[in-house]
Amino acid sequence: QVQLVESGGGMVQTGGSLSLSCEASGGHFSIKDMGWYRQVPGKLREVVAMITTDGRATYLGSVKDRFTISRERSKNTVNLQMTNLKEQDTAKYYCKVRYALGDWEDDYWGQGTQVTVSS
Predict the structure, then answer these.
(1) Percent of the chain residues topping a pLDDT of 90
(2) What is the DSSP letter of 105?
(3) pLDDT tens, position by position, 27-79
(4) How many angstroms separate the CA atoms of 112 and 9, rounded?
(5) Cβ distance 100 to 34 under 8 Å?
(6) Which backbone phi and psi does 74 adopt, to 5 degrees?
(7) Residues 84, 16: Cα–Cα separation, whole Å
(8) How far is CA 87 from CA 12, 71, 84, in A?
(9) Which of 53, 64, 94, 110 is paired with 24 by a 20 to 30 Å CA distance?
(10) Do residues 95 and 77 touch, judged by C-beta distance below 8 A?
């Protein structure tokens, strides 16, 4: 049974930094992509950053140059370093991991961790 355990998050003032981490366990197949999404009440969940198996990263335009995603393959962990945080970054952040085997793929989500940025 796949489990994703997220850590980090919390409250910070505008301009501050936070780190998120997500460790995946219990999967029997290879992890393909890993990423972070965020959601605020009343809005759709949006992708913040994704990283592929070979380390290629993509970012939401509004966080590019402020957030950095990384993965530790040996630990099945994906991290998100967030700097120069803005009030509009306030959201619940979710880790997503995609497992794959041949043509089969399946996504698993963490429980979410709250990030609150205040002025």
Answers:
(1) 85
(2) E
(3) 888 899 999 999 999 999 999 999 999 999 999 999 999 999 999 988 899 99
(4) 9
(5) no
(6) -65, -25
(7) 5
(8) 10, 26, 10
(9) 64
(10) no
